[in-house]
Amino acid sequence: MNNFNFHVTTDIRFGKDRLEELPEALAQFGKKVLLVYGGGSIKKNGLYDRVTTLLSEQGFDMWELAGVEPNPRVQTVKRGADLCKEHGIDVVLPIGGGSTIDCGKAVAAFALSGMDDPWELVLGRRGYTGPALPIVTILTLAATGSEMNVGAVISNPETKQKLGFGGPSMLPSVSFLDPTNTFSVNHYQTAAGSADILSHLMENYFSRVTGVDVQNRITEGLMRATIANMRIALKTPADYDARANLMWASTLALNGLTGVGKGGAWSCHPMEHELSAFYDITHGVGLAILTPCWMAHVLNEETVFQFATYAREVWGITETVPELAAKMGIQKLYDFFKECQIPMTLPEVGIKDERDFEAMAQQAIDHSSIATAAFVPLQKADVLAIYQACMTESQFV
Amino acid sequence: MNNFNFHVTTDIRFGKDRLEELPEALAQFGKKVLLVYGGGSIKKNGLYDRVTTLLSEQGFDMWELAGVEPNPRVQTVKRGADLCKEHGIDVVLPIGGGSTIDCGKAVAAFALSGMDDPWELVLGRRGYTGPALPIVTILTLAATGSEMNVGAVISNPETKQKLGFGGPSMLPSVSFLDPTNTFSVNHYQTAAGSADILSHLMENYFSRVTGVDVQNRITEGLMRATIANMRIALKTPADYDARANLMWASTLALNGLTGVGKGGAWSCHPMEHELSAFYDITHGVGLAILTPCWMAHVLNEETVFQFATYAREVWGITETVPELAAKMGIQKLYDFFKECQIPMTLPEVGIKDERDFEAMAQQAIDHSSIATAAFVPLQKADVLAIYQACMTESQFV
């Protein structure tokens, strides 16, 4: 086990009927609030009205950054930070899924960064040590875990870049996690969000660091809980416990718990970020498409034990020949995503040909340490091969 | 799943060779430090010298509360708080296991409580809302989880009471978790501490609240990691990864992660606290003795499914008849504790007869909500029966 720090101070308020606590949570920072939200689903489901009515009654002044994109853009961050500076905002309140929260976190940091260009902030990657406005979040989608970590992912359509960045000041101070706010998330987004959770768990799980039983057993448990409750939530969208388990799993998957003591670079996220950057596809779907093909590509004599362990512990595979067990585990994951009606090839999400693969593979290498620090280091040719394998349906056993 | 708060702000510094960070961790609170430690094992293994030399070099002023008992006493808390008041202590630094840390937390709270009698503080139980001096811990035993939670357990030999109490201000600000500090923990204390970890996991696991897959899968995983690494550490005391897994498991078992969203009262701890209060036995050993007998006592038609799940997920029992599977799981736990050379009857730890059982059973009821809120509510006759079952060796299948 590697040395690590674990210092995650977000105040989690989990459960239903807790919105009345919001004014107190915000007021500790001030009365001028920037609401951040996306395409208006919170207006349809009534959450917007409930929040703004409550805050108006309690004497808060509100400004709005609306229309945050599913892959939030650097121009939107600029727009939000301008509002903060112009109106002396005290606290940023993203209401939405990971994209909205990521955008709110970037706004909070850029507003106090002293930088002229928000893209400069993003290009600093994980090294932001400057201040940020306080952040209080209301989560409406179980997926990214952004509600309890220091990171954010921002896209720049002009340069076709989608990059993660962050720093300690960007950790949300308070996050409201009400599973009922995810009842209206549709089948496709529920599946995609859950695939994102599973991807975070698998990215942290497959590591070259040994002696990490605690982290591995926790991560396997979270994968099993996610799979089981994903099935229920897709059939019965208003099943409270299923939504609650998905929501809490999403938070724990990426708050440090499953990754501490391990280190190394992720594999599928850097490859997916290029798909989203070039084609603006749904992040979780991109991850679902890539992951089984990545697994098959990196399955070798050195990794087979870990994939066989994964197959046994997560999918209950009893096959004792490690290579076959490993392949059966990969097949199970692929079949499960198909069962959840996730499109499992790149053409199905609009990437009809390979014209951008060279450029995307090069950027995946350039924008991450995938070539040196990943579970199995991936060179450009490896990334290309994985993209190509995702062009058609797969059979792994 | 029940509503819950999760707000655990302790700054965990996990790993070896990190003591050089201690001055910075303390200095944020001031330069006057109260060292709290137990029977002197930190003097034998060199930790005391390393800490005091380092802090002297950095200009800290130190006072000492030494000789904290394995079941720390209220008089010791008073002695420590008097030192804090007399010398204007800025920060309390317990170096030791759960007893030492619990004592340090109680000292930190009582010093600022404004109360005259430390037992008054303890009798307030979980309701302490007053201030406490900042607490920085150096953990030397994987067991209680006190390094990352708000609770403390203090004994009063005069009244034969051992009670848990706590409040938010008693959460350690920084905790140093260096697995090498546990290399010198002997076989008996390693086994007892690990049994305490397992007990915390089982107390949280067996609950009447449903729809908590995330918590249950995490808890099963922590139990498996604890069992596997307990075996290694008992054979090879200086195995770094085994000690690291036990240490991190001990912290996560009782920092809220495994208990949030569930509620209800614990079962074995209230019964064990009376054993310790009357006979001053080792807490973890008392728990190991009680737990299998408690399980057998509460196994019934309503609980059999949960015990069978526990048997399958933790011990790999493949038996499909639920009642038999459940009993096999209980037997596995009992046999495992015996394999670890934990004395598994009360007479082996000096409780030779039943003369105090009536009084202890009554106190277990009076000092907890075991009779109303436990997984299976236990009345005085139940507690008596469990104590009596612990007088001889058991066979569960």
From TrEMBL, chains A, B:
Residues 10-179 form the Alcohol dehydrogenase iron-type/glycerol dehydrogenase GldA domain. Keywords: Oxidoreductase. SUPFAM superfamilies: Dehydroquinate synthase-like. This is NADH-dependent butanol dehydrogenase A. Gene3D superfamilies: 3.40.50.1970, Dehydroquinate synthase-like - alpha domain. Transmembrane segments: none annotated. InterPro entries: ADH_Fe/GldA, ADH_Fe_C, ADH_Fe_CS, BDH-like. It comes from the Bacteria. Residues 190-390 form the Fe-containing alcohol dehydrogenase-like C-terminal domain.
